[in-house]
Amino acid sequence: MRRTRDVIGLPVICVHTGKQVGEVTDLLLDEDWQVQAFLLGAGHWFQEATCVEWEDVIALGEDAVTIKREDAIKPLEAKNTWKLLLGGRHRIKGLPLLTVNGQQLGVVEDVYLDAKTGKKVIGYELTEGFISDLKEGRKWLPMPDSVKVGEDALIVPVRASEALEEIFVPKEE
Protein backbone atom coordinates (compact mmCIF):
# COMPACT_ATOMS: atom_id res chain seq x y z
CA MET A 1 0.00 0.00 0.00
CA ARG A 2 1.08 3.51 -0.70
CA ARG A 3 -0.23 6.67 0.95
CA THR A 4 -0.94 9.64 -1.27
CA ARG A 5 0.93 11.91 1.15
CA ASP A 6 4.05 10.01 0.06
CA VAL A 7 3.29 10.82 -3.59
CA ILE A 8 2.52 14.52 -3.13
CA GLY A 9 5.77 16.44 -3.27
CA LEU A 10 7.56 13.96 -5.53
CA PRO A 11 9.55 15.52 -8.36
CA VAL A 12 8.41 14.82 -11.92
CA ILE A 13 11.42 13.88 -14.04
CA CYS A 14 11.63 13.67 -17.84
CA VAL A 15 13.66 10.55 -18.68
CA HIS A 16 14.58 11.91 -22.11
CA THR A 17 16.31 15.03 -20.75
CA GLY A 18 16.85 14.08 -17.08
CA LYS A 19 15.28 17.41 -16.13
CA GLN A 20 12.87 17.97 -13.25
CA VAL A 21 9.82 19.47 -14.93
CA GLY A 22 7.59 19.85 -11.90
CA GLU A 23 6.45 18.53 -8.57
CA VAL A 24 3.27 16.64 -7.70
CA THR A 25 0.94 18.96 -5.76
CA ASP A 26 -2.27 16.92 -5.88
CA LEU A 27 -3.91 13.87 -7.46
CA LEU A 28 -6.98 13.85 -9.68
CA LEU A 29 -9.23 10.82 -9.16
CA ASP A 30 -12.07 9.66 -11.39
CA GLU A 31 -15.44 8.22 -10.37
CA ASP A 32 -13.92 4.72 -10.25
CA TRP A 33 -11.31 5.90 -7.71
CA GLN A 34 -8.41 5.67 -10.14
CA VAL A 35 -5.67 8.27 -10.52
CA GLN A 36 -6.18 10.04 -13.84
CA ALA A 37 -3.58 12.80 -13.50
CA PHE A 38 -1.01 14.42 -11.25
CA LEU A 39 -1.52 18.13 -10.66
CA LEU A 40 1.78 20.01 -10.96
CA GLY A 41 0.67 23.56 -10.33
CA ALA A 42 -2.59 24.98 -9.09
CA GLY A 43 -2.40 28.00 -11.37
CA HIS A 44 -2.20 31.66 -10.50
CA TRP A 45 -3.21 34.93 -12.05
CA PHE A 46 -0.82 34.67 -14.99
CA GLN A 47 -0.21 30.94 -15.01
CA GLU A 48 -2.72 28.18 -15.67
CA ALA A 49 -2.83 24.92 -13.75
CA THR A 50 -0.79 22.11 -15.30
CA CYS A 51 -0.88 18.34 -14.98
CA VAL A 52 0.55 15.09 -16.25
CA GLU A 53 -2.08 12.53 -17.23
CA TRP A 54 -1.63 8.91 -16.13
CA GLU A 55 -1.10 7.70 -19.72
CA ASP A 56 2.03 9.87 -19.95
CA VAL A 57 3.58 8.48 -16.76
CA ILE A 58 6.28 5.85 -17.15
CA ALA A 59 6.49 5.05 -13.45
CA LEU A 60 5.35 6.21 -10.06
CA GLY A 61 8.48 5.44 -8.09
CA GLU A 62 9.38 5.88 -4.44
CA ASP A 63 11.51 8.95 -5.17
CA ALA A 64 10.06 10.42 -8.37
CA VAL A 65 7.39 10.27 -11.05
CA THR A 66 8.96 9.69 -14.45
CA ILE A 67 7.58 10.81 -17.81
CA LYS A 68 8.88 10.29 -21.38
CA ARG A 69 8.84 13.85 -22.68
CA GLU A 70 8.41 17.36 -21.35
CA ASP A 71 5.46 17.95 -23.67
CA ALA A 72 3.47 15.53 -21.49
CA ILE A 73 2.86 18.50 -19.20
CA LYS A 74 -0.44 20.00 -20.28
CA PRO A 75 -2.89 22.61 -19.09
CA LEU A 76 -5.38 21.11 -16.65
CA GLU A 77 -8.68 20.24 -18.30
CA ALA A 78 -10.20 18.21 -15.49
CA LYS A 79 -13.51 16.59 -16.12
CA ASN A 80 -16.36 17.55 -13.78
CA THR A 81 -16.42 14.04 -12.34
CA TRP A 82 -12.76 14.16 -11.27
CA LYS A 83 -12.02 14.76 -7.61
CA LEU A 84 -8.92 16.36 -6.13
CA LEU A 85 -7.43 14.83 -3.04
CA LEU A 86 -6.35 18.03 -1.29
CA GLY A 87 -8.01 21.01 -2.90
CA GLY A 88 -10.75 22.33 -5.07
CA ARG A 89 -14.50 22.01 -4.96
CA HIS A 90 -14.44 18.21 -5.11
CA ARG A 91 -11.71 17.54 -2.54
CA ILE A 92 -11.63 14.29 -0.58
CA LYS A 93 -9.29 14.98 2.36
CA GLY A 94 -11.16 16.41 5.33
CA LEU A 95 -14.58 15.05 4.37
CA PRO A 96 -16.46 13.02 6.97
CA LEU A 97 -17.09 9.41 6.01
CA LEU A 98 -20.62 8.33 6.97
CA THR A 99 -22.57 5.11 6.64
CA VAL A 100 -25.98 5.21 4.99
CA ASN A 101 -27.59 4.96 8.45
CA GLY A 102 -25.76 8.10 9.65
CA GLN A 103 -22.85 6.66 11.65
CA GLN A 104 -19.69 8.71 11.19
CA LEU A 105 -16.67 6.44 10.84
CA GLY A 106 -14.17 9.29 10.84
CA VAL A 107 -12.76 12.04 8.65
CA VAL A 108 -10.65 11.21 5.59
CA GLU A 109 -7.03 11.98 6.42
CA ASP A 110 -5.39 10.14 3.53
CA VAL A 111 -6.08 7.77 0.67
CA TYR A 112 -4.12 4.59 -0.02
CA LEU A 113 -3.11 3.44 -3.50
CA ASP A 114 -2.35 -0.09 -4.64
CA ALA A 115 1.33 -0.94 -4.24
CA LYS A 116 1.84 -2.43 -7.71
CA THR A 117 0.87 0.47 -10.00
CA GLY A 118 -0.21 3.26 -7.67
CA LYS A 119 -3.24 3.96 -9.84
CA LYS A 120 -6.19 2.48 -7.92
CA VAL A 121 -7.45 3.72 -4.55
CA ILE A 122 -7.71 0.73 -2.21
CA GLY A 123 -8.74 2.38 1.05
CA TYR A 124 -8.95 5.36 3.36
CA GLU A 125 -7.07 6.46 6.45
CA LEU A 126 -9.57 7.96 8.87
CA THR A 127 -9.05 10.23 11.83
CA GLU A 128 -11.36 11.15 14.69
CA GLY A 129 -9.25 14.14 15.73
CA PHE A 130 -5.80 14.85 17.14
CA ILE A 131 -6.42 13.61 20.70
CA SER A 132 -8.11 10.45 19.50
CA ASP A 133 -5.23 9.83 17.08
CA LEU A 134 -2.75 10.03 19.97
CA LYS A 135 -4.80 7.81 22.28
CA GLU A 136 -6.26 5.25 19.90
CA GLY A 137 -4.51 5.78 16.56
CA ARG A 138 -6.12 6.20 13.19
CA LYS A 139 -8.34 3.74 11.40
CA TRP A 140 -8.03 2.06 8.01
CA LEU A 141 -11.08 1.35 5.87
CA PRO A 142 -10.58 -0.87 2.80
CA MET A 143 -12.41 0.47 -0.24
CA PRO A 144 -16.12 -0.38 0.15
CA ASP A 145 -18.25 -1.76 -2.69
CA SER A 146 -19.77 1.65 -3.25
CA VAL A 147 -18.89 5.18 -2.20
CA LYS A 148 -21.11 8.17 -2.87
CA VAL A 149 -19.16 11.43 -2.99
CA GLY A 150 -21.31 14.30 -1.82
CA GLU A 151 -20.50 17.96 -1.34
CA ASP A 152 -20.11 17.58 2.41
CA ALA A 153 -19.48 13.87 3.05
CA LEU A 154 -18.57 10.49 1.61
CA ILE A 155 -21.38 7.95 2.06
CA VAL A 156 -20.61 4.22 2.34
CA PRO A 157 -22.76 1.12 2.98
CA VAL A 158 -23.66 0.26 6.60
CA ARG A 159 -21.53 -2.91 6.55
CA ALA A 160 -18.39 -0.80 5.89
CA SER A 161 -18.18 -0.12 9.65
CA GLU A 162 -17.41 -3.82 10.17
CA ALA A 163 -14.31 -3.53 7.96
CA LEU A 164 -12.65 -0.74 10.00
CA GLU A 165 -9.20 -1.65 11.32
CA GLU A 166 -6.80 0.11 13.70
CA ILE A 167 -3.54 1.33 12.20
CA PHE A 168 -0.38 2.59 13.82
CA VAL A 169 0.57 6.19 13.06
CA PRO A 170 4.10 7.26 14.05
CA LYS A 171 4.27 10.30 16.37
CA GLU A 172 6.62 12.21 14.04
CA GLU A 173 3.80 12.76 11.53
UniProtKB/TrEMBL annotation:
One Pfam assignment: PRC
InterPro entries for this protein: PRC-brl_dom, PRC_barrel-like_sf
Domain of life: Bacteria
Record's protein name: Photosystem reaction center subunit H
Species classification: Bacteria, Bacillati, Bacillota, Bacilli, Bacillales
Occurrences of domain PRC-barrel (ranges): 3-68, 90-161
